[in-house]
Write a structure and sequence with these properties.
- The structure is a homodimer.
- Chain A is mainly alpha-helical.
- In chain A, 63% of the residues lie in helices and 10% in strands.
- In chain A, strands 1-2 form a two-stranded antiparallel sheet.
- The longest helix of chain A is centred in the middle third of the chain and has 21 residues.
- Chains A and B meet through α1, α5, α6 and α7 of A and α1, α5, α6 and α7 of B.
- Chain B binds a DNA duplex through α4 and β2.
- Chains A, B: InterPro entries: HTH_MarR-typ, WH-like_DNA-bd_sf, WH_DNA-bd_sf.
- Chains A, B: GO terms for molecular function: DNA binding; DNA-binding transcription factor activity.
- Chains A, B: It comes from Levilactobacillus spicheri DSM 15429.
- Chains A, B: This is Transcriptional regulator.
DNA sequence: ACTTTTTAATTGCAATTGCAATAACTAATT
DNA sequence: AATTAGTTATTGCAATTGCAATTAAAAAGT
């Protein structure tokens, strides 16, 4: 049996490529659909919070959001209480695509777990959510992973 | 509960960043350690096969391998039976780092599943391996995913 | 034997990414 | 109130990525 993280990497690369190919006709490359889904579910979210949710660099988030804005999928409204914060609000165009975006996510799950029992499907989602939480915990203490790597380093 | 593929994307991005940071002191950026692990486990593997295993573009694979070669981690030996095939063979330097690379993979698993029972850990690995197989199956029939996306397209 | 098709590795290109540093604004401290 | 520290968004930069097209070699078909 393979280390679970190898499978995770494979699946992530494969689905990213498929998603980008599927949505390029709508000018939604580069995982922009991931950002759009989150904004649709959290209207008014800020870039910083979105970057945290998606585990991408704030600058990466900025550029994806900028492209979505240029494409007419969202507007960036300054928060009256805090001039720096830009609230990301989906447009009607984004709302029109929401169903297809969720349909894509659901299709991935359907095909990816096509031979699963409902119980297995639920189990997978639960276990992965826990792994994600554990990995996010490393953000607050990155050295913990290093400490867990026990073998000798063989420095150059 | 989140769609499993969201968790997969999050985990993949987070671990990729951590891995790159951990191995930059050894000049192993850009997921090169993933390639090196596979080559260590499959000495003599060709670039095409490696690209298939890792689900990356052959050109991406070429450039990662080229950097590993430049860094002294492997040699590229022409296959006598087929002039085109270049067999990738790990060097002693690569062997010396093998333990640390496996240690990193193991550490990821340890931390990522720190609150799991052994049974849950095994279950996760099995379910993910099956998902990976299902997703790879899409390579042979990419339209199947599109067909599964049922919602209306709302073309531009 | 000759042509066509497939395979393996490669290159140019445009686009995305993360990191480091910066700007602008807000909060906290003295 | 003034200075310091922290937050939010941003930009320059170097590096990686996937796609499309190219080269070279092998296999298949005629």
């Amino acid at each position: 049996m393979q280390n679970a993280f190898r499978s995770i990497g494979l699946i992530a690369r494969a689905t990213s490529i498929m998603g980008n190919r599927l949505f390029t006709p709508k000018n939604l490359q580069a995982n922009q659909f991931l950002y759009l889904l989150r904004i649709l579910e959290n209207p008014g979210i800020t870039q910083a919070d979105l970057a945290t949710q998606l585990h991408v660099d704030p600058s990466t988030c900025l550029r994806a959001v900028r492209k979505l804005s240029a494409g007419g999928y969202l507007t960036r409204e300054a928060d009256p209480t805090n001039q720096r914060r830009k609230r990301l609000v989906p447009t009607a165009k984004a709302q029109a695509d929401a169903a297809q975006l969720h349909g894509y996510e659901q299709a991935l799950l359907t095909v990816g777990t096509q031979d699963f029992t409902p119980g297995e499907r639920l189990m997978l989602q639960e276990l992965l959510a826990r792994v994600a939480a554990n990995i996010e915990g490393l953000n607050d203490d990155p050295d913990r992973l290093m400490a867990t790597v026990k073998r000798a380093p063989h420095e150059n």
